[in-house]
Design brief:
By secondary structure, the protein is an all-alpha fold. It has 2 domains: 1-50, Homeodomain-like (Arc Repressor Mutant, subunit A, Orthogonal Bundle); 57-190, Tetracycline Repressor, domain 2. It contains 11 helices and no strands. Helix 1 (2-25) crosses helix 2 (32-39), helix 2 packs across helix 3 and helix 4 (53-73) packs across helix 5 (82-99). The protein is elongated. The N and C termini lie far apart (60 Å).
């Protein structure tokens, strides 16, 4: 049992080191040797858990995306009205991005660069299914604009990454009023005109 836990701890240390180094240096400036050193394991140990650097980054992305969406949908009920469901999900996503900044920054980097392969990106999208289903229901009910999921995400969810980055830089400290204004802007950008 102790051996299994030690193995889990090593793998988790590699994931954590990958997130930190990619966030600080970018994908290409993060060699396996640095990841191993930061995780306090030998470089050969990485290959017990991952095929190569691409596999390490892809698996890290999928795991972080799963944590992110688990948090986002924890209190969501698919029978909620569309607007209430979107508000709850949006505010949970905002909370995650502002509290779990390192993980959220890693996801933002992955979403904005080609470092994640297509298969892993599709796996990541599957984790967003409750939000995609909510948007589909909203389109069918005439509540959400008839836009693609990509456009809905770009206008309503992606701005949270920008807010997270400027808060991390210290340019702004978001308060409840500003977050509510950001939510209202997100909702206005995707709701069907009445």
């Amino acid at each position: 049992m102790a051996k299994l836990q030690k193995s889990i701890d090593k793998r988790n240390a590699l994931i954590k080191a990958t997130i930190e180094l990619v966030n600080n240096n970018g994908f290409h400036a993060t060699p396996m040797s640095k990841i191993a050193k930061m995780a306090n394991v030998s470089p050969a140990t990485i290959y017990l858990y991952f095929e190569n650097k691409q596999d390490l980054v892809n698996q890290t992305y999928i795991e972080v995306k799963a944590e992110y969406t688990k948090y986002a949908f924890k209190t969501y009920d698919k029978n909620m009205p569309v607007k209430a469901g979107f508000e709850l999900i949006w505010k949970r996503i905002a909370d995650f991005k502002l509290k779990e900044c390192e993980n959220a920054m890693f996801l933002a980097q992955c979403d904005n660069t080609p470092m994640i392969d297509a298969h892993s990106r599709q796996e990541g999208i599957k984790h967003l299914q409750p939000l995609l289903d909510l948007w589909e229901r909203g389109r069918q009910e005439g509540i959400i604009k008839p836009l693609s999921n990509y456009l809905l995400y770009a206008y309503s969810i992606n701005p949270l990454s920008f807010l997270m980055i400027i808060q991390k830089r210290g340019d702004i400290q978001l308060n409840k009023v500003q977050l509510e204004e950001a939510y209202q802007s997100a909702w206005s950008s995707i709701k069907q005109c009445e």
